[in-house]
Amino acid sequence: MLYLWIKALHIVAVISWMAGMLYLPRLFVYHAGVEAGSAQAKTFEVMEYRLLHYIMTPAMALTWIAGIALMIEGSWLTAGWLHAKLAAVLVMSGLHGFLGRCQKDFAAGRNRRDAKFYRIINEIPTVLLIFIVIMVVVKPF
To answer: What is the domain partition of the chain in residue ranges?
Structure first.
């Protein structure tokens, strides 16, 4: 029964994290189009900060904690599909860190990237999510 509760927590955490991973780059797309220091830029800065620090980062931490518990409790440590999934989750975590760096750059008025860059970055979490879900559900190896 504990395994199922951990799995439910893991799924909720993943959904919360992914919502932020999809939304934050979209905010950057719009933020990149406004003048640094403007009232609109300040609004985006508050939204980005709160999304990253109050939702995304705690959700990522919970995703990792519950995921590690599931690996141990389910005895999945030697499964090939899990290794592939973990590699994708590490890339997702790295992207999370990169987005955190971008948020700090925007807040400091140092953003040098255009909206097109953030539109492209916005696709990466979707591709990773598709791969991760296939690994977990299909377990191809």
So the answer is: 2-138
Torsion of Cα atoms, 99 then 105 then 107 then 109, to 10° = -150
C-alpha 112/C-alpha 105 separation (Å) is 8
- Residue bearing tokens 């591709």: 127
Q: Which of 70, 128, 69, 71 is nearest to 98 (CA)?
A: 128
Distances (CA, A) of 135 to 81, 85, 104: 5, 6, 33
Confirm if 30 and 44 have CB atoms less than 8 A apart: yes
The predicted-structure confidence for 105-115, as pLDDT tens digits, reads as follows: 999 999 999 99
Q: How many other CB atoms are found less than 10 A from the CB of residue 5? A: 11
Q: Tell me, yes or no, if the pTM score tops 0.85.
A: yes
What does the pLDDT look like over 44-59, one tens digit per residue? 999 999 999 999 999 9
Distances in whole angstroms, Cα of residue 34 to Cα of each of 43, 48, 55, 94, 114: 11, 14, 24, 27, 11
Q: In the 8-state DSSP scheme, what is residue 55?
A: I
